[in-house]
Each structure stands twice: as structure tokens, then as C-alpha cells.
């Protein structure tokens, strides 16, 4: 079933406003097909945890879901201020969905700053659950409210539930052996309990989680669980909440699912790559937002033969990975834009050495520090060309959080088969967003084992067996991988141009020209699958072509157009270098190709250069946030109707 | 580092020569170091394939091309980082880094100090000629203040590094100095470095006949060397010419032997745990080389980084069926099944 263009519940399950005059209040259960909820509070209020737990509860129920965490770069911005607001949005439904939702229908606001920062996004008529305890004169002034918005008519377009969350939580925890401060800190669990009741989510898994998380502080675990239950009970008994909602499970493909973020899926894809190739994995990394979680995750998986080195800097991180690759490991480095810039010289060396190397760029808004916790797709040109000399590498991009797993395996296949660096372009949206993932069957794990060179591979003029480190596989143009320790194959490699075949230093002009062209031909010849087009009616004149994390918003927009009977074709690029062999033919079928990107037109520029004659129309925004499906739908419709 | 194999076939110096034509300037100190290395390597008792040389950029960094071992001529300053990856992932190799004063102390300073503090099992040979040779004669981070070069026509105003002081500040576990022209001493130091478990840092004073000729002449000329060169010997009093080294304030100083009671002469011990002693030794000579100790300044034991990393991985990975473990990892935590 298609995702409705509107973020609101369908007519059949309209929300019923509580009637304050109703005598015998009986909780009504209403069915919804989808909801978008945003939890917002101060960065110290635990909103990410609250959202994560609600997500886990929702996943358990079998809804399809998509999440969008949004938090400030500062670890603790000044309390109660607008820059300190942290939020977590979840979209869940009884159908398959593609995005975390354009506009929330429910806003949980833990303080005035959270209300003020998030209200403009809230759907008209939406629900606001607000912590009234924080609406003091001082807190209101801090964010520029002249009057208390809970007391004037500024929120009359919304259904406001004023709840003294802090004092109710403290009251509920009177019997517990925790101080007032610790009790107040549990208010996020009270809010979670209340929202869990409203949307009929079970809380057992969160109780289990809290017991485990605070195993060494049982009194804190107990207080949090009590707050969670108090929140649930408050929903059930308070007269203000007359309606409870249910969102039935989605009918997804059969199989076992789990919820996964992009960074976790990427880390597990690296683990799987080691298993599939039967190689030890060696990660060199330096902490950087939003890539650090990959380092954290891989550091936990040493049992897979994964070595993680937290290097002294980005350059050392990629250097150590390359050194390990030389020694026969699967060398990986993970970073974000500023770090990738620092690694550029070493990636060029890897191009010259023709060794496998996986380089993960979790893109964030730049240039420079930019908006380090916000998403962007502006590193495509750096991935393609951001090196010195002619230094082509393979480039791939996952399209959703769970897709990171399969994309890593593909990147590994390319790196090992063609002995080349491969850049994996994730971004902050994919990295921190989560979605249900149909777990792959181990029987489908590809066989990525490699043949190291162990014997001589040529003869000299006198008929003696010799080893030529740059003698190429005629099909792949890959050179032999003869690792140190292999008897008889001692050889020297380096950044100076090498004679093809022998690998000896060569300053010969013709050889350099030959080597530059050969390295380019090797990358251009990488085997990548054809791109598929979704052109259901066959009548579309316009193709929308995206790459990376825009997959969800573009897909939702295209569904909306199709539902309204508007023809549009759709394709999504996973392989950015080389591009699929059939791409030119596909582009040639359409009058116009719309390319939505969270940059100022980088893929569009590549397409115009590679496929001249294609009428490429860019749709570009760099706001640090993913596209909404509504804005894309409008933009696509505009091109279809008006050219 | 790979264990020495006593029953290995005895290789000769010529077995370690590669087919490549050596292309340093005539008279370059690098020739002497290369010859000393080639004749020393058989002593390791290792097969050639178990030895890897990694270099950065600069004249010295051409070194790996001329040795019939595995070798990588990498990028400027980064050899210690690349070698860290190799040495950490491969416990069966003997990994050597060849670098210069610009490569190790200027562009690659960060990697050098971090390799040393981690105590990665690398043998780092720093060829110090106090000049940039490959780029044709700019001052380096070890050049003397006031030096006239193409990039300092009015004299360099840079304060130089003392490479040994820097290495000791980074808590290097093995620190030594030797001379390109003294093959016996050079090989003695290489021998001690090779036997050391962990990072071994060896500064080799190396003459650049083109851009900084005779930079170390004070230590080589028979007329001056006895007054300037201090040959450190473990367990022996530190004396040279008619001078001795004694404690002074927080450090050490040189005195005339005739002015000092014999029992006050410092007995050299490279295994003193406190790096302050070796640091004081490194401060005896300034840039002017007036009292220059050579030999092993410091040689202490400390757990090595690569061994520690491998131990954790091996402990965790022993007996694990990776494919089965991957399946369990994917299914860990909250999962649900759709029928």
C-alpha cells in the first residue's frame, strides 16, 4: 500500500477530541494507519534515549518505521536555550514507509525552548504534550516568549495536553530512595510511559533495558521503571487523555527483522566483509562526528578478528589501514568530510600501489566544521576527484540505514577484486536514522575470498621464473597481491611511477601515460549491475534520479504522484563510479531528468559531463536536513507540468 | 617481531641487494648506511621475505628500493603510521622504518612521537643530515639557527629539534645515535635496536655532500673527534679524551678528568627506567656537537602496542566460528518475525 501524501491519519480513523463535559469517560481506542511523533527537549533531557526506546517498542509491535534524530553539536548547550534543543522523530505505520515523516502530528515538548523550536514543524491540529513545570517566567524569557503560550491563544490550532511532567515524576518517586534531582531526571521515562500508553506500545522491553543499563545502580533502574509505569498509568486514568490509539502491524515480507541504524549496519557490513573474504579486518580511525559510532561498534567485535586502531590523526588512520592492507588484511578507514580531506594523499598512494582499501565517508554539512551533526551530500565531487593526479577510485552510496550492510559487502567485492580503494558515501541522515531490517540469510553471504599471489608469474628472457608485481589480470586489470612474508616474491612498491609489469621505478613518458590510462580503465571496467527504472505506466516523460539517502524522500514523493495518477519514472544510483553501463540509455528515454541532491548539483554536473544531451534539472537544498517528501512531490510536479 | 631462526640458511650481504641501481649523489652518507645494513641483515637470521622496510619521502626514503626484502616507499612523513598498520596486523615480520630529519621531524613529527609513545615494534632509522636534500637545500628542523640556505638567505630563525630529546620526551623505550661513517658502531647499534622489543629509535648522523657537506666533521676529523665524541658503553664510566661526565644540578655536565674524583664519574646505564638520565645525556651536546654521545642512550622494557592489540583480538577470537557468530550478531537484541 502506498504511503499517503498527507501525514495525517486517514478519514476512517479520525482523531476524537476529548469532550471535557462528557460524564462517563471511557477510554476510546481508535485505529490509525500511521503517526509521526517528535520527542523534543533540552539536550540533557534524554530525548534520544526516549526516542530509541519508543522505536524499540514500536519495532516489537511489527510496525514499519523510520526515525530521524536531530541534536546539537554541543554536548551540553546552555540549558533551556533554543540551541540546546534535541529531538527525535519517529514515523511508524501499518504499511511500509520510506521516510521519518515530513511533519510531526504529535510533539512532546519538555520545555519552552523545545516548544518554540519545533512548533513551526507541527501539523496544524496536531497534539502537543507539554511539560508545564518548565514554563517559568525565567525559562520563557530565555527563549523570547513575552507571554506564556500555554495561557494565551497562540496554540489554539493544536490539541494541547498540559502535563506537569517533572512534579508528577517527583511525586511518583517519593517512595524511592533517590534524590529529588535524580527523580526529576526520570521525567523522560514518565513522558515515554504516557506516549507508550497513548499509542498502545508495550513497555516490557524498556523495563528490561533499564534494568540492564542501570544494573550497578538498582535504585536508579527502579526509579526509571516506576516513572515509566507512572506515565502509562497517568494516561490511563487522567481525564485529559480520553483516546488511545492503535497502529496495527505492517504487512512486511516474511522473515526476521530487527531495527538498525546506518552506522551499525555499516559496521556489521564491515564485519560481514571480513567473514565473507576470510580476511582479518583492520580499521584505522580517528574520532569524528557522525562516523565515530562505527569505530565504537567495530571495537566491540574483536571476536571476528577485527582489529581497531584509534590513530593519532586521520592521516595515520588511513595510513595504518593501508599498511595492514599491504600485509594482507582488509584495510578500512572511517571518517567524515574533513577527515577524508586529510586522507586524500594516502588514498592516492593506494591508487598507485593498487591495494584494496575501504574508505567510509559519513557525510555531514560542510565546508570545514560546518554543521557536524547535520546531514549533507556535498562530498560526491571529493569522492570522485578529491585527490592529486589522475587518481580514480570506485564510489558507492547506500540508500537507507539497513542498506549500508549490503553496500559494504559490495564495496569489499570491488576493492578485493580490482585491488583499489573504494569510497562508501553514507551521510548523517542514514548514519543516525533507523529502520526495520529484514535480516539476510547466512547462505546468501557472498564468497569474497581472494587468491594471494604465492608463486612466480612470469619468465625472463633467459627462461628464469620471475615475479612481476604489476602483471595484470587480463579481465580485471588487477595486479597480484603478494603480501610480505611470501617466500621468493620480495618486491618494492611505492608512490613513484612504476613500469607496468616489473613495478620498477620508471620515468618513461610513454609508460606514465600507459599507467594512468590503465588505472583509469581498471576502475571504468569494474563490474556493476544495471540500474533499474520504476516506470510503472511506461508513459513517463520525466525521470527522477537520486543517489544515497534521498532514496526514501524521493520514493515517498513518487508514490504520492503515482497515487494521484501522475506519471513519473524513478531510478536510484548506488554505483557512482563507475556508473551502470545502461545509465546513458535510460537517461535517453526521458525528456527531463530531475536530480534532487542535498548539495548544489554535484551528481547533476557528472551527468551533464558523462551524458551530454541529457536535460538535467537539479533540485537542491543544503539545510542540514533530509528532503521532505511533500516538497519533492511539489518540485517534481512542477517539472512534469511546466517543464 | 619475528623470532630469530638459528637454523636459517646463512645469507650474505649480496643476498640483500636488490636489482635496482642505487641513485644517490656521489659521496652521500646513505651509501655507507646501505652497505652497513646489507651486511648486517644476515645477522637477523630471518628469511628475506620476513623483513619489510617502509620509508617516507626524501633522499633517505629511497632506501627500501635497494634491499631485496619487502619494501614500501610511501608518502612524506607517514611511514611510521603505515608501518604501525603492518606491524600490528603481522606478528611474523621484522618491520623497519627509514626516514630523514624533514620526513620524521617536520611533516611526520606527529606519527613519530605517537609510534614511540605506543611502543610499536618498529625499528626507526632517522638519517639526520640537517638539510633538505631532495628538494635541493632548504633548512630542516635540525638545521642550526642562522643557517644560510635557499629558503633562509638571511639566516634561519628556526630553533632546531634535538631528535633524541624529542624521542625521549615521547617515552621511547630504545634511543640511540650513531654515525654513517663508522660501520662497526653503526652495526653495533643496529644489532641492539633489532634485539629490542618495541620501538627502537636510531638517529644516524649522515653527511649530505651536496647541500650540507661536513656537517658532522667535528665528530669525524681525527683532530677534533676525541674532544667531541663520547662513546657510550653500558657499565662503563663516561669519559672521552681527558674529559668525563658528572652529575650537575638536575642534569649532567662535562668536566676535566683531572678536576673530578673518579667515583663521581657517571657510569652509563641504558636500562635506567627514569628517562631523565637519558634526556640529560641527550642535552650534553647542542647543535654545535661539542660533546656528542653516540651509542645506546636508553634501552628499557615496556609492553608493546602491537602485541597488546593482537592479544585482545586473539583472546576474543579464539575458537569463534565467524559465520555462526555473524548470524548470532545479526539476530542479537530485539528482533521480531513476520510470518
TrEMBL record, chain B:
- Write the record's keywords in alphabetical order, separated by commas: Oxidoreductase
Database matches in Gene3D superfamilies: 3.40.50.970
Please tell me whether the keyword DNA repair is annotated for this protein. no
Q: Which residues form the Thiamine pyrophosphate enzyme TPP-binding domain?
A: 57-204
Q: Which GO terms describe its biological process?
A: cellular respiration
Q: Which GO terms describe its molecular function?
A: magnesium ion binding; oxidoreductase activity, acting on the aldehyde or oxo group of donors, iron-sulfur protein as acceptor; thiamine pyrophosphate binding
Q: What domain of life does the native source organism fall in?
A: Bacteria
- Matching InterPro entries, A to Z? 2-oxoacid:Fd_oxidoreductase (IPR051457), THDP-binding (IPR029061), TPP_enzyme_TPP-bd (IPR011766)
Instruction: Show the stretches that span the lipid bilayer.
Output: none
Q: Which PANTHER family match?
A: 2-OXOGLUTARATE OXIDOREDUCTASE SUBUNIT KORB, 2-OXOGLUTARATE OXIDOREDUCTASE SUBUNIT KORB-RELATED
- This protein is called 2-oxoacid:ferredoxin oxidoreductase subunit beta
Q: Which organism is it from?
A: Glycomyces buryatensis
Amino acid at each position: 500500500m502506498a504511503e499517503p501524501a498527507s501525514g495525517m491519519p486517514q478519514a476512517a480513523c479520525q482523531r476524537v477530541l476529548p469532550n471535557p463535559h462528557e460524564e462517563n469517560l471511557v477510554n476510546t481506542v481508535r485505529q490509525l494507519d500511521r503517526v509521526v511523533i517528535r520527542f523534543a527537549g533540552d539536550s540533557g533531557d534524554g530525548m534520544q534515549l526516549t526516542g530509541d526506546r519508543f522505536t524499540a517498542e514500536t519495532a516489537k509491535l511489527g510496525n514499519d518505521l523510520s526515525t530521524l534524530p536531530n541534536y546539537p553539536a554541543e554536548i551540553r548547550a546552555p540549558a533551556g536555550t533554543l540551541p540546546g534543543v534535541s529531538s527525535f522523530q519517529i514515523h511508524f505505520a501499518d504499511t511500509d514507509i520510506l521516510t521519518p515523516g515530513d511533519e510531526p502530528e504529535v510533539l512532546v515538548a519538555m520545555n519552552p525552548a523545545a516548544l518554540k523550536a519545533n512548533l513551526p514543524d507541527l501539523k496544524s491540529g496536531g497534539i502537543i504534550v507539554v511539560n508545564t513545570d518548565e514554563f517559568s517566567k525565567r525559562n520563557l524569557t530565555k527563549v523570547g516568549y513575552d507571554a506564556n503560550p500555554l495561557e494565551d491563544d497562540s496554540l489554539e490550532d493544536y490539541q494541547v495536553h498540559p502535563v506537569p511532567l517533572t512534579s508528577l515524576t517527583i511525586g511518583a518517586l517519593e517512595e524511592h530512595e533517590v534524590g529529588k534531582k535524580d527523580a526529576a531526571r526520570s521525567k523522560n521515562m514518565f513522558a515515554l510511559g504516557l506516549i507508550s500508553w497513548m499509542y498502545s506500545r508495550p513497555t516490557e522491553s524498556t523495563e528490561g533495558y533499564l534494568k540492564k543499563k542501570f544494573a550497578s545502580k538498582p535504585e536508579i533502574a527502579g526509579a526509571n521503571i516506576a516513572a515509566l509505569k507512572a506515565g502509562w498509568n497517568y494516561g490511563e486514568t487522567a481525564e485529559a487523555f480520553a483516546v488511545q490509539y492503535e497502529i496495527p502491524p505492517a504487512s512486511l515480507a516474511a522473515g526476521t527483522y530487527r531495527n538498525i541504524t546506518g552506522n551499525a549496519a555499516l559496521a556489521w557490513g564491515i564485519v560481514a566483509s571480513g567473514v565473507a573474504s576470510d580476511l582479518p579486518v583492520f580499521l584505522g580511525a580517528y574520532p569524528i562526528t557522525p562516523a565515530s559510532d562505527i569505530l565504537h561498534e567495530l571495537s566491540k567485535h574483536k571476536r571476528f578478528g577485527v582489529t581497531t586502531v584509534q590513530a593519532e590523526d586521520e592521516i595515520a588512520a588511513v595510513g595504518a589501514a593501508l599498511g595492514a592492507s599491504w600485509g594482507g588484511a582488509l584495510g578500512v578507514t572511517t571518517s567524515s568530510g574533513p577527515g577524508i580531506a586529510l586522507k586524500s594523499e594516502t588514498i592516492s598512494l593506494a591508487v598507485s600501489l593498487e591495494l584494496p582499501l575501504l574508505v567510509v565517508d559519513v557525510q555531514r554539512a560542510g565546508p570545514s566544521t560546518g554543521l557536524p551533526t547535520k546531514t549533507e551530500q556535498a562530498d560526491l565531487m571529493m569522492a570522485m576527484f578529491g585527490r592529486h593526479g589522475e587518481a580514480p577510485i570506485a564510489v558507492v552510496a547506500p540508500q537507507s540505514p539497513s542498506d549500508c550492510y549490503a553496500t559494504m559487502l559490495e564495496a569489499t567485492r570491488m576493492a578485493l577484486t580490482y585491488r583499489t580503494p573504494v569510497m562508501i558515501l553514507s551521510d548523517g541522515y542514514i548514519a543516525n536514522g533507523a529502520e526495520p531490517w529484514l535480516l539476510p540469510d547466512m547462505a546468501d553471504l557472498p564468497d569474497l575470498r581472494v587468491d594471494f599471489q604465492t608463486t612466480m608469474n612470469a619468465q625472463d628472457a633467459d627462461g628464469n621464473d620471475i615475479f612481476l608485481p604489476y602483471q595484470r589480470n587480463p579481465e580485471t586489470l588487477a595486479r597480484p597481491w603478494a603480501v610480505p612474508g611470501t617466500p621468493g616474491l620480495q618486491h618494492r612498491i611505492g608512490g613513484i611511477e612504476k613500469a607496468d609489469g616489473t613495478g620498477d621505478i620508471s620515468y618513461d613518458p610513454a609508460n606514465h601515460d600507459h599507467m594512468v590510462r590503465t588505472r583509469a580503465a581498471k576502475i571504468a571496467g569494474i563490474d556493476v549491475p544495471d540500474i533499474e527504472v520504476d516506470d510503472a505506466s511506461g508513459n513517463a516523460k520525466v525521470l527522477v534520479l537520486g543517489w544515497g539517502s534521498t532514496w526514501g524522500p524521493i520514493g515517498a514523493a513518487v508514490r504520492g504522484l503515482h497515487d494521484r495518477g501522475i506519471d513519473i519514472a524513478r531510478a536510484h544510483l548506488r554505483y557512482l563510479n563507475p556508473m551502470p553501463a545502461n545509465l546513458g540509455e535510460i537517461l535517453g528515454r526521458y525528456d527531463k531528468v530531475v536530480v534532487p541532491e542535498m548539495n548544489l548539483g554535484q551528481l547533476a554536473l557528472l551527468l551533464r559531463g558523462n551524458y551530454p544531451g541529457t536535460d538535467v534539472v537539479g533540485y537542491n537544498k543544503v539545510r542540514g536536513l533530509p528532503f521532505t517528501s511533500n516538497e519533492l512531490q511539489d518540485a517534481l510536479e512542477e517539472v512534469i507540468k511546466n517543464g | 617481531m619475528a623470532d630469530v631462526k638459528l637454523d636459517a640458511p646463512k645469507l650474505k650481504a649480496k643476498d640483500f641487494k636488490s636489482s635496482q641501481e642505487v641513485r644517490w649523489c656521489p659521496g652521500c652518507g646513505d651509501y655507507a648506511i646501505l652497505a652497513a645494513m646489507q651486511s648486517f641483515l644476515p645477522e637477523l637470521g630471518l628469511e628475506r621475505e620476513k623483513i619489510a622496510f617502509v620509508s617516507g619521502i626524501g633522499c633517505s626514503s629511497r632506501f627500501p628500493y635497494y634491499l631485496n626484502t619487502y619494501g614500501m616507499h610511501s608518502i612524506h612523513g607517514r611511514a611510521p603510521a603505515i608501518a604501525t598498520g603492518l606491524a600490528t596486523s603481522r606478528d611474523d615480520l621484522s618491520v623497519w622504518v627509514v626516514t630523514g630529519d624533514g620526513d620524521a621531524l617536520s611533516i611526520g613529527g606527529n606519527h613519530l612521537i605517537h609510534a614511540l609513545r605506543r611502543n610499536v615494534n618498529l625499528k626507526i632509522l632517522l638519517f639526520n643530515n640537517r638539510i633538505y636534500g631532495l628538494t635541493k637545500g632548504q633548512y630542516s628542523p635540525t638545521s642550526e639557527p642562522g643557517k644560510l640556505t635557499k629558503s633562509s638567505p638571511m639566516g634561519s630563525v628556526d630553533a632546531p629539534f634535538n631528535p633524541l630529546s624529542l624521542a625521549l620526551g615521547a617515552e621511547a623505550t630504545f634511543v640511540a645515535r650513531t654515525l654513517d661513517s663508522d660501520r662497526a658502531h653503526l652495526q653495533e647499534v643496529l644489532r641492539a635496536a633489532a634485539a629490542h622489543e618495541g620501538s627502537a629509535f636510531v638517529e644516524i648522523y649522515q653527511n649530505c655532500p651536496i647541500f650540507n657537506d661536513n656537517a658532522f666533521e667535528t665528530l669525524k676529523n681525527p683532530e677534533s673527534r676525541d674532544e667531541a665524541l663520547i662513546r657510550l658503553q653500558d657499565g662503563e664510566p663516561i669519559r672521552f679524551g681527558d674529559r668525563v661526565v658528572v652529575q650537575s644540578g638536575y642534569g649532567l655536565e662535562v668536566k676535566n678528568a683531572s678536576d673530578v674524583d673518579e667515583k663521581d664519574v657517571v657510569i652509563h646505564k641504558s636500562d635506567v627506567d627514569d628517562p631523565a638520565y637519558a634526556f640529560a645525556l641527550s642535552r650534553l651536546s647542542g647543535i654545535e656537537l661539542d660533546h656528542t654521545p653516540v651509542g645506546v642512550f636508553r634501552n628499557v622494557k615496556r609492553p608493546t602496542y602491537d602485541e597488546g592489540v593482537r592479544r585482545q583480538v586473539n583472546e576474543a577470537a579464539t575458537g569463534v566460528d565467524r559465520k555462526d557468530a555473524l548470524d548470532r550478531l545479526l539476530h542479537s537484541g530485539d528482533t521480531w518475525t513476520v510470518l
